[in-house]
Amino acid sequence: MKHSLALLLASLALAASAQAQTVATDAWVRATVPGQTATGLFVQLTSPTKARLVGGRSPVAASVEVHEMSMQDGVMRMRAVPTLELPAGQPVMLKPGSYHVMLMGLKGTVKAGDTVPVTLTVERDGAAPETLQLQAPVRTLAPTPGHAH
Fold first, then answer.
1. Where does the signal sequence lie (predicted)?
2. What 8-state DSSP symbol labels residue 49?
């Protein structure tokens, strides 16, 4: 009986560690107009352990980068950042006017109603990189708070 209980507990611990992945919720991509070469991906990321978002890839874009919007001398500026820290167990919201993911070098127009595949890469110290496969719906505007989609 003790052996079976120990085996069960070891199996549960292994299953729990295998499921300790970053969770992506409420992902969406902003629609573009013809000729627009970049757009934003917005998502909430929650990592069970300290991690960092380092970038990604998408078949609709030449590159996928983490960006930050910030106010500098009264002007809103956007810049690429090499990583975005994901504190253990704390949701990090990537949203318009703040941190977000840029899809750059778009291969075509991204229209409302489309779905954009995006793979995000998350790194942790001492672990293999984790990839998050997203199917992000395309929207024309930011979703309103509390509105179900």
1. 1-20
2. S
Q: Is 14 among the domain residues? A: no
Q: In the chain, which stretches have pLDDT less than 70?
A: 1-20, 141-149
- Coil, helix or strand at residue 91: coil
What is the per-residue pLDDT for 2?
55
Number of folded domains in the chain?
Answer: 1
Q: Do the bridges between strand 130-139 and strand 23-30 make them parallel or antiparallel, or are there none, so unpaired?
A: parallel
In Å, how far from its chain's centre is CA 57? 11
**Beta strands 115-123; 51-57: pairing state:** antiparallel
Q: Which pLDDT does position 70 carry in this prediction?
A: 79
Reported in sequence order, the residue ranges of 47-98 that DSSP labels E, i.e. its strands, are 51-57, 61-72, 75-80, 84-86, 92-94
CATH number, position 52: 2.60.40.1890
